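Sorry to interrupt, but I need a hand with the structure work. Go ahead and set the record down below:
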Amino acid sequence: MSAGEDRISGAADHIDLTPQSGLPLFGFVDRSGPSEGVADSLEANALALRDSAGRITVIVAFDTLFVGPTVDAELRAFLRGEHGVRDEDILLLASHSHYAPALDPTKPRAGPVDPGYVASVIERSKVMLGRLLDRPMVPLTLTHSSAPWQGSVHRRKRWPLPYLSGHPRRLGFHGPVMAPEPRGPSDDRVRSWLVRTEDGAPLAVLWHCACHPTGFPRRRQVSSEFPGRVREAVRDRIAPGLPVVFLQGFAGDVKQRSPDRRSVLRGLRDTLLWGPSFCPFDEAGWLQWTQELSSTVEATLSAAEQREPLPLSGPIRSARSELDLADLFDGDNGPRSIQCRRVRVGDELDLWAVAAEPSMALREFLPRGDSTVALGYLGDVSAYWPTAKQVAEGGYEGRGFVVEMGLRGRMRSSTDDAFRAMVKQLEVIDDD
């Protein structure tokens, strides 16, 4: 088959998901009551790709903490039943913003679900997906670029003294605290993909980094956090209304790097009482951090625009695996599992997606190369996925999240082995 016959075509779209009234937000156990205004709109941005054999993959990024089981199941059923898209070719991803209403009813401690909002998200998403897959798809080019980035930092720091932590406050001993640890693994670059039609018109932008969107200082307002601010900067630069798909990475133990604005005496007092900690952003600090990230993403797109656009070609292939929670926890969590997907688009994009909050170090188990993209927060997220070392150390990612995410038992020490087994399964990718 010639390159021309092997072309991949596509279409892109987006919708607004901003709630029309004040709803409880999802993501902080010490926050209750309805939201108090909208700082940034919430969206879902989608890209559909079809190869020469007619196989379609659909990638959707939602401004939400977790997509959750209800939205995930409904939209997968819609794409399978109405449009014949294979389940393994569907990636429904969350940005992991902590400033959006809940879509996931399995984690009530993080915020209650409003059924009307969930139903609205499902219906609006179906309209978008139907529109996306009914419109003509056009042959595409894809240009990739990346740039160094120092905006994130590892958030697990060992601390030898007792400290108070959690909600309610509990006494902790010798375990990791949630504080900046520059020596730990974090994301050191931002990546982007400029998707264009054959005549050079921009169709969509995909961009990727790994970082918790938890720094927005107005905790009671609706916000898409940094993914939304970057999206608006990209649209201002390239085209209004352009679909911009944010691909959140393995961000389970990675947080925004915020400056410490405390005085020496206050910092010392806080550290002795609470242990080391992050200093929250003020409004100016968060805006500066977000603007620096936006400028970095824009720089990658500028570099992509200067490069020769290459036709996007080759087959779409995929693989799937599933891990029972019993393989990660020694408690009874029912029939729940962690879904994993791999979608490979020609030789240009190799997306490895996990329905969990994976720790950054697990990325090392994936294949190396510019096409490999490690994605967390796929569909129905059940749990964190820490490394075996983190399980032994404890801390929030090692065991503290269990109650907050509605789980039972302790994590097993075989998390690395389980991740390697998942990768091995996904290496066997179909060629249909």
Remarks:
- The chain has one domain: 1-153+183-432.
- Helices lie at 69-83, 115-134, 225-237, 264-274, 283-306, 388-393, 395-404, 415-427.
- The radius of gyration is 21 Å.
